[in-house]
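Q: Convert this sequence to structure tokens.
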Amino acid sequence: MANQNLDIITYFQKLDRSFFMDELKEFAYMDEAIPIGHEQTISQPSLVLEMTLALDLQPDSKVLEIGTGSGYQTALLAAFSNTVCTIERIAALHERAKERLKKAGFSNIQFKLDDGSTGWEEHAPYDRIMVTAAAAQVPRELMDQLAIGGKMIIPVGTPLLQELLLLEKDEDGDIQTTVLEEVRFVPLKGKYE
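A:
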């Protein structure tokens, strides 16, 4: 795991955040969320890295990402897992991220334009789930689509402040919850806003 983390950190440091931005590229180096249009943001780089490390990706992991956005987080997930299934509800962001990630050479990403709050049943179960928008509560559908031994990262709380949760499903299907920190994400639209 230590080597995997080191590899992720090294890759992250070389990943050009400005590649995932159409505007405000001059702010790509800043460690803060930057608007990407459609009332969405490209997440703070240090938080993207922290969430990725907490997810404990494995080379054979099948990952569900809720909120493709710019594709920045998607690239980090795809580089260190077998398959990423990513859902975005905003057509313009969906198309742009798909274009970018294909240009970057990724061939292990499945894209879907839809409400991600209820997951993607067709490809379930998932070893890892990354939710990049804040839910008022943990979506039941996502818990059901998480594999035994799986891990999910999700911000849960009010629109102004959330707790970043790490949820782990044990062999009995029970969920262990760890609060990683307080965060502020754009809201998860759909059933769980």
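The chain has a mean pLDDT of 94.
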